[in-house]
Design brief:
This protein is α/β, with parallel strands linked by helices and 440 residues long. Strands 1, 2, 3, 4, 5, 6, 7 and 8 form an 8-stranded mixed sheet that branches.
Length: 440
């Protein structure tokens, strides 16, 4: 959990200094003079299904800890990739707890349940369409190779056109979201939703041919159904085929930027809450050095092989772009307080979890809920001062209640040991001591 300030070890304390505190207090007095409520927005990054799962767990913890903040009545929402699904649901009046019931627990109102199997339906049309191209491509490539017009590498590249652009179809998820957002009191139309709620919902995808951001929900981009925009924003190349809209093809919004927070900041927000579920793992200060339970220690990521190296590379790229964006926002929008919530970089739970796995979603959701509560308790004073000018206070009774859980016992996976927090701290100290002794 952290705002624009960064840390070299794990989750950072909020970016907080006297000048920013003074500006927050000045803005609060100005709002009081004009009797206007603070304008608050929410920006959600991507991270695959488990990224959305982490965000739901964190949002449930924030909803409990900040009782004055209604996550379904904010002034603006921007969602990227998997975060677009949550942003659209919140803007449609679905509270974090209700989303957890429908997406994580698969309980609650049957009309709102989003089955995990919707994400893994084979893209049959894409596969058959590409397969149909193979005979023609193979014939052309063979002739050109025989005539010496192409090298072997160029021939293989040409045959690559027969490879599908994604293995799973987004159509079943899009159809289900259309049903959910079309329920009474909700809307699958950006224009009706924004007009009715007097807020702004923006879901960002990437134009595959130009590489430019497509801010669905903004004027000129609000004619696309919300469910369609979610499918486009979450179309991660290689997993889901690009989505066709108006004769153009769109893919994952994270290809361009991590958060796309500027579309909300330009509205003159007083406070922007940001959630980013993907962070690089800090193995040098990790709380545990285990790849999986009972499979030994990996003190260096390279020992985990290609999967861990690729995961760390992807997360590092995502995180570095986020850092640059936040630093830029601090300069371009100095009057907006920005608070960023993330997993602890020393905690391997999110790093070791497969971002495409659905079997781990309940474990990750409970972990995100508890970790966010731990972070809020440890940073309560600094965050309290930062949030107070925006009319937000902590519910200390709820935050101090260690018996609270997100999920019922049968859904939590591994039980949370009462000594987990002190043991994690002790483990961190021992790791630091081990490294110091090794260096000596």
């Amino acid at each position: 959990m952290k705002p624009t300030g960064m840390s070299t070890k794990g989750a950072a304390a909020p970016f907080f200094h006297p000048s920013r505190q003074a500006r927050s207090a000045d803005r609060a007095r100005a709002r009081g003079a004009r009797r206007g409520a603070p304008r608050i927005g929410l920006a959600l990054a991507g991270g695959g299904p488990l990224g959305a799962t982490w965000e739901l767990g964190a949002l449930c913890a924030l909803e409990e800890a900040l009782p004055d903040l209604d996550f379904t009545a904010l002034d603006g929402y921007v969602g990227v990739s998997a975060g677009s699904f949550i942003a659209a649901a919140l803007a449609n009046g679905m509270r974090p707890r209700a989303l957890c019931a429908s997406f994580i627990e698969n309980t609650g109102a049957a009309a709102d349940v989003v089955s995990p199997t919707l994400f893994v339906r084979p893209a049959v049309a894409e596969l058959l369409g590409r397969l149909a191209l193979l005979p023609l491509l193979a014939t052309q490539a063979g002739l050109q190779l025989a005539l010496g017009r192409r090298s072997l590498i160029a021939t293989v590249e040409r045959l690559g056109r027969a490879l599908p652009t994604g293995i799973f179809s987004s159509a079943p998820l899009e159809a289900r979201l259309k049903q959910v957002f079309s329920a009474p009191g909700r809307s699958d139309d950006f224009r009706r939703l924004n007009q009715r709620q007097n807020q702004r919902l923006v879901l960002v995808a990437t134009d595959l041919d130009s590489g430019e951001a497509a801010p669905f929900g903004q004027p000129g981009w609000d004619h696309v159904p919300i469910s369609r925009a979610v499918a486009a924003s979450a179309a991660l190349p290689g997993l889901f085929p690009p989505v066709a809209i108006g004769g153009r093809w769109y893919a994952d919004g994270a290809l361009k930027k991590t958060l796309h927070a500027r579309v909300l900041l330009d509205q003159g927000l007083d406070l922007l809450l940001c959630l980013n579920p993907l962070v690089p793992f800090d193995a040098t200060h990790s709380l545990r050095h285990r790849v999986l339970e009972g499979r030994g220690r990996i003190p260096r990521i390279v020992q985990g092989g290609l999967p861990l190296v690729l995961s760390q590379t992807f997360r590092t790229m995502i995180r570095s772009r986020l850092e640059l964006g936040l630093k830029g926002y601090e300069t371009s929008h100095p009057d907006t307080d920005i608070v960023l919530f993330e997993p602890d970089q020393r905690d391997p739970e999110m790093f070791l979890a497969n971002i495409l796995s659905y079997s781990q979603r309940r474990l990750v959701a409970e972990h995100a809920y508890q970790q966010t509560r731990d972070d809020l308790r440890s940073r309560r004073s600094a965050l309290g001062v930062l949030l107070a000018p925006h009319g937000l206070r902590f519910d200390d009774a709820a935050l101090n209640d260690n018996t609270r859980h997100l999920l019922p016992p049968e859904m939590r996976g591994r039980p949370r040991n009462a000594l987990a927090v002190p043991l994690k701290r002790l483990d961190a100290v021992l790791d630091d001591l081990e490294q110091a002794l090794s260096a000596a």
